[in-house]
């Protein structure tokens, strides 16, 4: 069962999101919080597979909570959820290391698909968000050559990560075992001194690999 912490300051919205998520029989909301501070307190006492965070909340917002979660509980995935279609929020979330960014107007299928993508190692960006974020990434950073230590096989894997593919999808496409792909991704991040897959995806975009 996939354990989810749902953090949203409006109770009615939170209950609606919970109902949407739990239409999937493999997902259960095992924790609810109304702000980032409460979310961190729940993380202290419980283990969650994924933490869904609203951006704007009282006491502690979702971005500040995500920074702490990525540092203290890196095994938990983070999905940012907001009504604000603003690339600056998404850019900040990606820099923090969030695994996905969705708008609240997404339907239940899109939300569940995004949660599964985050859990499988993919980078989930709603199309409207990606359309704003990717051009900004390209605009802000000059394209430079890929590190010389990267092998042709690793370059292909970087490209697929940049496209938002999960480890399983990469394994299927390249006819490799899941464990082999995980090892490749880990080695690539070590070579490039990157913290997580989100940073690797951004690296792929910045270096024109995608």
From TrEMBL:
Database matches in Pfam families: GerE, Response_reg
Which residues belong to any copy of the Response regulatory domain?
Answer: 3-119
Q: Which residues carry this modification: 4-aspartylphosphate?
A: 54
Entries under PROSITE patterns matching the protein: HTH_LUXR_2, RESPONSE_REGULATORY
Q: Which UniProt keywords apply?
A: DNA-binding, Phosphoprotein, Transcription, Transcription regulation
The GO terms describing molecular function are: DNA binding
InterPro entries documented for this protein: CheY-like_superfamily, NreC/VraR/RcsB-like_REC, Sig_transdc_resp-reg_C-effctor, Sig_transdc_resp-reg_receiver, Tscrpt_reg_LuxR_C, WalR-like
Gene Ontology BP annotations: phosphorelay signal transduction system; regulation of DNA-templated transcription
Key word Phosphoprotein present in the record? yes
Task: List where the protein spans the membrane.
Answer: none
Keyword check for Protein transport: no
Q: Which residues form the HTH luxR-type domain?
A: 143-208
List the protein's name.
Answer: Response regulator transcription factor
Native species of this protein? Paenibacillus anaericanus
């Amino acid at each position: 069962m996939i354990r989810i912490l749902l953090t949203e300051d409006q109770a009615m919205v939170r209950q609606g999101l919970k109902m949407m998520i739990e239409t999937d029989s493999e997902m259960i909301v095992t924790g609810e919080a109304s702000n980032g501070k409460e979310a961190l307190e729940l993380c202290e006492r419980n283990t969650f597979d994924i933490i869904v965070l609203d951006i704007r909340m009282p006491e502690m917002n979702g971005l500040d909570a995500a920074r702490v979660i990525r540092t203290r509980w890196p095994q938990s995935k983070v999905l940012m959820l907001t009504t604000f279609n603003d690339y600056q929020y998404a850019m900040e979330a990606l820099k923090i290391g969030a695994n996905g960014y969705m708008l609240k107007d997404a339907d239940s299928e899109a939300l569940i698909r995004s949660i599964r993508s985050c859990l499988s190692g993919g980078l989930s960006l709603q199309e409207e968000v990606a359309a704003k974020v990717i051009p900004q990434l390209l605009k802000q950073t000059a394209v430079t050559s890929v590190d010389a230590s990267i092998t042709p096989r690793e370059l292909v894997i970087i490209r697929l990560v940049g496209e938002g593919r999960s480890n399983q999808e990469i394994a299927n496409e390249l006819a490799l075992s899941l464990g082999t792909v995980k090892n490749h991704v880990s080695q690539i991040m070590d070579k490039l001194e990157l913290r997580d897959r989100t940073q690797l995806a951004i690296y792929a975009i910045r270096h024109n690999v995608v």
